[in-house]
Amino acid sequence: MQTLKNLFNPTVWRQWMIVFLAGVVVFMTTACGTTQAAAPGNSSARDLNPAANSAKTEGMYPHKDTDMDTSAADAKADRMIREANQRIQQNIDKSVGERVEDVGQSAKQAAENIGASTQRAAENAADNARGVVNGAANAVDRAAPRS
């Protein structure tokens, strides 16, 4: 009785049905797909002989489908290389310009700093000279006899 229940178990039937339907789908898509091998039409012995075709094609595989026109791709590659080189040159020119501008700003700032430092040095020297003169005058005043 248990074997009979296992035989008519709906889960088992469902699993077998899924496997069967998957097989049918695989079979139908493989056998009835849109991609099919090309059937040879009226072909001459020259078309079937690779040695005879070597005159019109070059390379390891002398078939017509291996000959491609790459001039458009070559032109695009050359254009992209040229544009990349132009962008590189523009970036170099821009960075050099920025560096020259930075150097100019630094030189201007250094000149301003030198001017300010020179002014401070002159003021300090004047203050020191006044201090020396005042100190000398005070020394003379102290050394002079008081009457």
SSE layout and pairings?
Blueprint: H1 2-7, H2 10-31, H3 45-48, H4 50-53, H5 71-143
Describe this structure in words.
- By secondary structure, this protein is an all-alpha fold.
- Helix content is 74%, strand content 0%.
- The chain is built from 5 helices and no strands.
- The radius of gyration is 49 Å and the shape is elongated.
Radius of gyration: 49 Å
Number of helical elements: 5
Question: Which band does the percent of strand residues land in?
Answer: under 5%
Order of H and E elements: HHHHH
Task: Characterize the biggest β-sheet.
Answer: none
Distance between the termini: 150 Å
Percent of residues in helices: over 70%
SS-based class:
mainly alpha
What coarse outline follows from CA principal-axis ratios? elongated
Uncertain residue ranges? none
Overall average pLDDT: 80
Beta strands, count: 0
Record keyword descriptors for this entry.
147 residues, mainly alpha
Summary of the model, kept short:
With 147 residues, the chain is an all-alpha fold. The chain is built from five helices and no strands. The longest helix has 73 residues, at 71-143.
